[in-house]
Amino acid sequence: MAKKGNRVQVILECTEHKESGMPGMSRYITTKNKKNTTERLVLKKFNPVLRKVTEHKEIK
């Protein structure tokens, strides 16, 4: 039987990179359970362009 579709793929984008004006962007793809986590996901991930750990927020 097929599984229920509670898990969805989301894209996380760096917030500091947008403000810095540097070319390129830092994005990560992950999954979340939309039933348990209804609000937008915010995680700290490494940004290779800025060379530091920054906040990445879910984009739609």
TrEMBL record:
Keyword GTP-binding tagged: no
Keyword flag Ribosomal protein: yes
Transmembrane segments: none
Keywords assigned: Ribonucleoprotein, Ribosomal protein
SUPFAM superfamilies: Zn-binding ribosomal proteins
Domain of life: Bacteria
GO biological process, alphabetically ordered: translation
Classification via InterPro entries: Ribosomal_bL33 (IPR001705), Ribosomal_bL33_sf (IPR038584), Ribosomal_zn-bd (IPR011332)
GO CC annotation: cytoplasm; ribonucleoprotein complex; ribosome
PANTHER family referenced in this protein's UniProt entry, alphabetically: 50S RIBOSOMAL PROTEIN L33, CHLOROPLASTIC, LARGE RIBOSOMAL SUBUNIT PROTEIN BL33C
Protein name stated in the entry: Large ribosomal subunit protein bL33
Natural source organism: Mucilaginibacter myungsuensis
